[in-house]
Structures are given as structure tokens and as C-alpha cells.
Request: fold
Amino acid sequence: MNDTLTHSTDVVSVGAVSSVPSDVENLLDFLPVLYPGGSAWLARTASEVENGTADAFAALVDNATVAIGFGVLKPSNRYKVRTLFVSPTRRGQGIGTILIAALSDRAEHLGACEIYITAAATIRDDFEPMISKAGFERVATEPGRYGCGRDEDIFVKLIY
Reply:
């Protein structure tokens, strides 16, 4: 899936990538702070994308990555969206919607029975409306998933 989105004077190209763009570490610079082992996780995910065991979709503006989505088919035949992140300066432009649609299409192509994504409960007010439009439903909240007061919402979309 390759889409082009025009917002203001910028052209945003969105599509599957076979390797993680080199500037993604800067885009996801918060990972090591929020998640123990975040840098190692990103390196492992990049390796999985390169060897074809995980998927990556990126959004680029002027060859700079402004959004990224990672996904993987789990042995349970459920597709996990590992990360869906849009640069704060690019939110509200439809980029996240295109990325989640691309990841959903990939899950369906792989024959997954469902697709799921987790998100910090602190971003629920912004995240849930976007993900709900894509057919996801919040099915649970796991208290303290990443420490005291750091609850995580779980969203699921069934694939028929």
C-alpha cells in the first residue's frame, strides 16, 4: 500500500518499507525513557523487519520520517501493531489513519483473525477516536502495565 497525502504545501508519502529508516531512532527518541530496554527493542524490531518477520510502514516528508508503524503476526494468528507513532507536528493530518489502514490490510492479507494495539491510557482522549474510526474497540485496560499509574489500553479489531 503506497499512498500520497497532501497537507498544506507538504506531500506525505506512506508505504511499506523493507528496512527501518535511519532517522526513526530520532523520531522515537522517547522509547528508552518510557520503556525499559526501548533502544534494544527498536534494534530488534529493525532486524525483524529486515529479515521479513515483522512489518514496517513509514510516512515521509522530504525524505524525513514523520510517522512509523510496526506490526507482526503472532503464533496465535493475531496481528499485533507494535508501534504506531506520528510526529506531534504531523498529527491531525490523516497520517495515523493511513498507517493503521495499511497495517490492517497487511494483517488481513496474512490471514490474521484479529488485529490489536495497545496504548498508554494517558493518550486515550486523542488516540481512541482515531482508532475507533478504523474499526477498533477498547476491550480492556491493564493497570500499572509499565509501572505505578501507567495504565495501558488494549484495542482490538476482528477480521472476518
Observations:
- The chain is about 30% helix and 35% strand.
- The mean pLDDT is 88.
